[in-house]
């Protein structure tokens, strides 16, 4: 709109406000310049303009809000319409400049996630790296900020969360005689038991694994635990902070009993947040998240693991070049990432192949089947091999995504889905140049994402503010008020009709999933025994699996290990349902143009467009074409109200998607609890038998059908939430814009203009 464009380029008058004192301006400019050091000069200039525009807009909003609050301060009965205006102003003032862009580095043990982050931020060995198995033991978030020092916050489990884990750990290790005094099976510790012993010894000392839950509650931990459950670290240099951080985030060796007090509280750590000073490489607003392994035995940490994946708008699946083909862990990570695209905020997904400098030249030349040109060097061989991997894996990944996601998904439009990087060569450059390591390419991707998001966010913010501020210009215009009121009455009826049509459209949209959901239920009923049987079988029989299975039952069907693949019986049993519904589920929650009516957002966009067209029609008929402020306000407020629905829908999407597994888990909880209590002779086989019979019984009693009903109920709740938000917000907005002559306009004109001495023309010109 022309008015919005004028507003976007118009300058404020700094002499009108003392916040523009020269020392403050210099300091702020310096801070802003520092924050944009990660960008080339052209992009820096663009970001500075966005920041200045947003800052001016916030000042105008804040001044308007303060004056409006003062004008109604002594009034006992503030009309709802004025409350709406006050709340909208406050919401815009408090709205964050930019929600962080979370980029999740999601990979298995030893894939090189920490090494990659170190290379991206150009701080060698900042996060712990090692050639030995697991290195990073918890979720680590790295970002840059306005701080002058390197800072870190280590978040610990609460006392209640640790007690819950302690109870599960001691139950897992508890050995008793079976019925009739029979001793338990030969006790070969599996992965679950080894990890339980390790944690207890680390926290309480040697011999802790033999004590009961009650004894350990009375025992004194080896390390000092702050009452705040947060440990803050600061350092002037990156290396200094790295040394302080190391014992908190490095996985400790199981055969090592030394170490500091910091090492001893390692089992309590659930999250580490690291903030770098103003960085030349990572712009403020971007958070790199090192997500280790496949979850955690602790319920809180495991939930945080899933939520962290879901809040990432970008996921890089990290895989060592030597494990890229045929590894189950790699496939599991890809599948989990694609689920994040379905249930979370993820819009971009890429495969980042690490250690791409690794190549045995004689072996490669012997097996080489590409081209006729002779390879002259190790570098040429590495680059050729990497290019082949990109082409092959790009096609494989795109095919997988097409089967799971809608054809018009943003991730499928990406020009590059695969990167081949080498953190080691980034530092050494013995074989590859810095550009050929593709670390700079990842940095460029990060900058491009932030720049694009900043532009969209500021444009949307200023447009919203513009419409709200323009309303003040119509306070003094009461001509034709009764005529406007009649037109608005007609508009209300129009809105009610359109809301009814929107409800029907949403019902039709959600109806698309009914048939795939039913087919998935049939498939699940016919295959659950085979799937459960496969989950309960291990190649080495029951040796060591007894304790792992017990851990699965203690956690209601889920076991997340730092070294083994994630076990989730509930997810496995419902997988046939998800295979049927995934494509249509993705289409329901996609954005873009509607095709078959299955997409939700386009229905809301069509509703918005119909209202805006009606507003314009009424405005022209009522003479608003000569004074378009009110029309502009109404149209932009509709965009703001309905635009906020998309975020509401995304937040609800995860609950809908996971409702199937949650329902199955709740139904199977009694049989998990029964199996977890089994001890004694042949305990492992007896646990499996309890699980098989329990699942059979629940399936016969309608477990899958109940899951279906619960998902459909979640869809219905989403529809109700959408229509309630639309009805409430738009009704209040119309009241604000269309009070009769003795209503809001006269009240605001009397209050706002008389008490605050605000000239609408001045407000507009300063905008």
From TrEMBL:
Q: Which GO terms describe its cellular component?
A: nuclear speck
State whether keyword Nucleotide-binding applies: yes
- Where do the Dynamin N-terminal domain residues begin and end? 103-322
Query: Could you name the domain of life of the organism this protein comes from?
Result: Eukaryota
Q: What is its main location?
A: nucleus
Any single GO molecular-function term of the entry would be: GTPase activity
Q: Where in the cell is it found?
A: Nucleus speckle
InterPro entries found in the cross-reference section:
Dynamin_N (IPR045063), Nuclear_GTPase_SLIP-GC (IPR053082), P-loop_NTPase (IPR027417)
CDD domains referenced in this protein's UniProt entry, alphabetically: Ras_like_GTPase
What keywords is this UniProt entry annotated with? Coiled coil, GTP-binding, Hydrolase, Nucleotide-binding, Nucleus
What does this protein do, in the record's words? Answer: Nuclear GTPase found in germinal center B-cells, where it may inhibit function of the activation-induced cytidine deaminase AICDA. Reduces somatic hypermutation in B-cells which may enhance genome stability.
This chain belongs to the protein called Nuclear GTPase SLIP-GC
Tell me what organism the protein belongs to: Bos mutus grunniens (Wild yak)
């Amino acid at each position: 709109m022309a008015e919005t464009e004028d507003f976007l380029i118009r300058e404020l008058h700094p002499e009108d406000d003392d916040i523009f004192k020269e020392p403050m301006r210099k300091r702020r400019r310096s801070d802003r310049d520092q924050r944009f050091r990660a960008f080339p000069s052209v992009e820096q200039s663009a970001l500075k303009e966005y920041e200045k525009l947003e800052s001016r807009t916030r000042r105008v909003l804040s001044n308007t809000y303060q004056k409006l609050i003062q004008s109604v301060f002594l009034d006992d009965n503030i009309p709802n319409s004025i409350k709406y205006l006050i709340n909208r102003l406050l919401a815009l003032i408090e709205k964050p400049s930019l929600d962080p862009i979370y980029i999740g580095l999601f990979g298995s043990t030893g894939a090189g996630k920490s090494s990659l982050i170190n290379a991206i931020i150009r701080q060698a060995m900042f996060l712990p790296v090692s050639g030995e198995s697991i290195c990073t033991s918890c979720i680590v978030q790295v970002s840059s900020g306005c701080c002058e020092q390197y800072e870190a916050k280590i978040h610990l489990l609460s006392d209640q969360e640790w007690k819950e884990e302690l109870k599960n750990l001691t139950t897992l290790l508890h050995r008793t005689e079976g019925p009739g005094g029979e001793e338990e099976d030969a006790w070969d510790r599996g992965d679950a038991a080894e990890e339980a012993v390790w944690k207890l010894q680390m926290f309480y000392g040697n011999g802790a694994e033999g004590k009961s839950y009650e004894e350990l509650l009375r025992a004194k931990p080896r390390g000092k635990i702050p009452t705040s459950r947060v440990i803050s670290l600061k350092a002037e240099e990156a290396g200094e902070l790295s040394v302080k951080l190391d014992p908190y985030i490095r996985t400790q060796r199981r055969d090592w009993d030394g170490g500091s007090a910091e090492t001893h509280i390692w089992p309590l750590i659930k999250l580490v947040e690291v903030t770098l000073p103003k960085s030349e490489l990572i712009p403020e607003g971007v958070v790199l998240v090192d997500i280790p392994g496949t979850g955690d035995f602790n319920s809180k940490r495991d939930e945080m693991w899933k939520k962290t994946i879901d809040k990432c708008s970008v996921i890089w699946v990290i895989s060592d070049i030597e494990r890229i083909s045929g590894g189950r862990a790699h496939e599991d990570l890809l599948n989990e990432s694609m689920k994040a695209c379905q249930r979370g905020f993820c819009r971009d997904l890429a495969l980042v192949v690490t250690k791409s400098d690794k190549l045995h030249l004689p072996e490669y030349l012997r097996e080489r089947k590409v081209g006729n040109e002779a390879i002259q060097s190790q570098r040429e061989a590495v680059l050729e091999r990497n290019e082949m991997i990109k082409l092959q894996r790009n096609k494989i990944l795109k095919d997988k995504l097409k089967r799971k996601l809608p054809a018009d998904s943003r991730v499928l439009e990406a020009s590059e889905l695969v990167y081949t990087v080498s953190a080691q060569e980034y530092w050494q450059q013995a074989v590859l140049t810095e550009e050929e390591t593709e670390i700079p390419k990842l940095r460029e991707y990060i900058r491009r994402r932030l720049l694009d998001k900043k532009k969209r966010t500021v444009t949307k913010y200023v447009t919203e503010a513009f419409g709200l501020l323009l309303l003040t210009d119509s306070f003094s215009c009461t001509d034709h008020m009764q005529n406007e009121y009649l037109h608005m009455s007609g508009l209300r009826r129009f809105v009610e009709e359109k809301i009814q049509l929107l409800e029907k459209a949403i019902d039709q949209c959600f109806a698309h999933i009914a048939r795939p959901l039913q087919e998935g239920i049939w498939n699940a009923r016919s295959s659950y025994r085979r799937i459960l049987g496969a989950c309960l079988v291990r190649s080495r029989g029951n040796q060591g699996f007894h304790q792992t299975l017990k851990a699965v039952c203690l956690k209601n069907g889920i076991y997340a290990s730092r070294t083994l693949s994630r076990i989730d019986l509930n997810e496995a049993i419902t997988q046939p349902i998800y295979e049927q519904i995934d494509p249509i589920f993705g289409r329901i929650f996609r954005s873009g143009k509607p095709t078959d009516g299955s997409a939700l957002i386009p229905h809301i966009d069509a509703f918005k467009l119909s209202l805006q067209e009606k507003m314009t029609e009424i405005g022209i008929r009522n003479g608003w074409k000569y004074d378009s402020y009110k029309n502009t306000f109404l149209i932009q407020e509709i965009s703001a109200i309905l635009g906020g629905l998309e975020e509401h829908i995304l937040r609800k999407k995860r609950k809908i998607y996971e409702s199937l597994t949650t329902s199955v888990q709740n139904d199977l909880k009694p049989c998990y609890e029964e199996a977890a209590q089994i001890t004694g002779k042949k305990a492992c086989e007896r646990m499996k038998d309890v699980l098989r019979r329990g699942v059979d019984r629940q399936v016969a009693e309608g477990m899958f059908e109940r899951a279906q009903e619960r998902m459909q109920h979640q869809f219905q709740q989403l529809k109700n939430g959408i229509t309630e938000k639309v009805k409430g917000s738009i009704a209040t907005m119309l009241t604000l814009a269309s009070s009769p002559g003795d209503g809001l306009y006269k009240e605001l004109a009397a209050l706002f203009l008389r008490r605050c001495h605000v000239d609408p023309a001045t407000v507009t010109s300063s905008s």
